Amino acid sequence: MHALEINNLTKTFRAPDGEAVPVVSVASYALATGEQAALIGGSGSGKTTFLNLIAGILRADGGSVAVSGTDLSGLGDGARDRLRATTIGYVFQTFNLLQGYTALENVVLGMSFGPGPDRARAAELLERMGLGDRLHYRPRQLSVGQQQRVAVARAVAHRPALVLADEPTGNLDARSAGDALNLLREVCTENGAALLVVSHDARLLEVFNRVDDFANINQPGGVPA
Amino acid sequence: MIRGILLLIRRSLRQHFLSTTITVLSVAMACGLTMAIFGIERQAREAFIGGRIGWDAVLGARGSQLQLVLNAVYFLEASPGNIPWSMYQHLKHNTPGVRLAVPYAMGDNYLGYRIVGTTSEMFDEYRDRDGIPYQTTEGRFFDPGYMEAVVGSFAAARTGLRIGDEFQPYHGLDFDPNAAHAERYTVVGILEPTNTPADRVLWIPIEGVFRMEGHVLRGTGEEYTPEAGVEIPDEHKEVSAVMLQLTSPTVGWNLNQTVNRQGTVATFAHPIGAVMADLFEKLGFASQILRVVAYLVMAVSIAAILASIYNTMNERRREIAILRALGARRLTICAAVIGEAAAIGVMGALLAVPVYTAIVTAAASVAREQTGVVLEAARMHPALVAVPVGAVALAALSGVVPAIRAYRVDVAENLTPHS
């Protein structure tokens, strides 16, 4: 079974002047269970929209997205929320950590809506990320690299089948980026989770066995094959 | 899920500490005030209409029944005048159905606490509504043949009078340091607290009031000044009121007919509770206004919860979007917002208890000082449960509006910008 299977996925936004702007048009894309892949593309190419469609945060205009065999297009809001809470992990481009919560609470909350909070696992993951002495720090008390690692811990804490990462190295120096990426890949491998990383960072080419060019699979304005 | 919601509520309350504190305090004040208004009104009504006072009726000079009751039972109003001793005698000896008749003679005070002249029957035969007689904590009751006094517990505490102390009565019901009588009375007993107006009274033999320097008796219509060593003829004696215990309400109805409808000399107030109930009815508009004020204060405090949470919804949109992206359902977010409002209500309701206690304690102190009636903060009243529960329910309800706004937050729009 595929961890992710996309067919004829389209998404169009309305520009302020009312003009329809096609952003995503992907004929076919798939990730096998446990597979790890990078999707390289320039800024503004629709990568984040693509991930949001996969995560069920955005509704597609057409086509289908199936995560672990579940087709999102047939799901209501609640079911898609549930799917995110149990099956999908998401490392956001800007981390999206909750500012009023500690590192530990951020990770615990990542589990709360799915399998349930597990403080011990959350603490263990953060320790593994090298944040054992920062469990009770707020995001603004952490460096950018540390925040990134909290976001990674939160994305994998509930043992999702599919982890999405949006520009996870974008704000980091080369060493921190490498560390964060290695940790993410390591945990995904342990959990048997598929990993899809989108980025405009060419350094990813050196890390992943499978690297796809988003420009090749996304043909907005064209008709998906 | 529940633990997640509780964490969201706790964190949000802490993040908005100032507005949370202010709204909690406003709910506490509103709740405490409302509980106090209901509690005090109920207790005051019970104390004045029911209470432990054991008298069924009171006979006094022609005038207002309410003034008579306030003067003779609650020692609040000025005396409407005196009635001849013979009326007391007639009630005591010749009126069927009168179980006990005790005369009061008033007109003096000690440091503002009323001095009441009465007979030994007050202590030997009177029983309150619970069948309990007056008892002393120290000493004994007065001997009617001596210038002795028995002091109510509250008056003793406030004046500092102890067994063996002597004091001079002052003329009039209000304390005037220049109006001291020459006589000196010795305190021979301190009464046990009764939680009635009697606690504020200094009791002396009625003969002492008759013979007090400067007092003139007008029992016959003409002035008579008692002389030392000479017995006072009954026809000259007069009393401020005659306190009555009756064998049945019918006796009271008959006396009402005789004294109030057919007579012109005296006023008969019966039953005492009905007279006071009439007063409370007349003052009913005041309690209505107080209740309305309480409801308004409560409404304002609930609106404050709504406003304080609603105003933070803009800044929370990103947080809500993140939570949704993590898998929180819309209803989970709504539950967290409503739970936050309810939590403010719960904290306010808990804090309302000391507010209520403080208000009732202050009111009780004034009531005790002014009337002798005891109000207790700890006495159970349905409002003590209904008001806090209602406040929490209303607070939760006030969270519905911001919860709906939270429900509508678009996740993608409020997350990171599109790349």
Architecture overview:
The complex is a heterodimer of chains A (225) and B (419). Chain A has 225 residues and is of the alpha/beta class. Chain A has a domain of 151 residues: 3-Layer(aba) Sandwich (Rossmann fold). Helices cover 33% and strands 26% of the residues of chain A. In chain A, the strands form two sheets. Chain A has a five-stranded parallel sheet with strand order 6-7-8-3-9, sandwiched between helices. In chain A, strands 2-1-4-5 form a four-stranded antiparallel sheet, covered by helices on one side. Chain A is globular, with a radius of gyration of 17 Å. Chain B folds into two domains: 179 residues, no CATH class; 214 residues, no CATH class. Helix content of chain B is 52%, strand content 15%. In chain B, the strands form two sheets. In chain B, strands 1, 3, 4, 5, 6, 7, 8, 9, 10, 12 and 13 form an eleven-stranded mixed sheet that branches. In chain B, a hairpin with a 2-residue loop joins strand 3 and strand 4. The radius of gyration of chain B is 31 Å and the shape is elongated. The two termini of chain B are 32 Å apart. At the A-B interface, helix 1, helix 2 and helix 3 of A face helix 1, helix 11 and helix 12 of B.
Task: Quickly list its features.
heterodimer; A: 225 residues; alpha/beta; Rossmann fold; five-stranded parallel β-sheet; four-stranded antiparallel β-sheet; 9 strands; 33% helix; B: 419 residues; alpha+beta; 2 domains; eleven-stranded mixed β-sheet; two-stranded antiparallel sheet; 15 helices; 52% helix; 15% strand
What is the compact description of this entry?
The complex is a heterodimer of chains A (225) and B (419). Chain A is α/β, with parallel strands linked by helices.
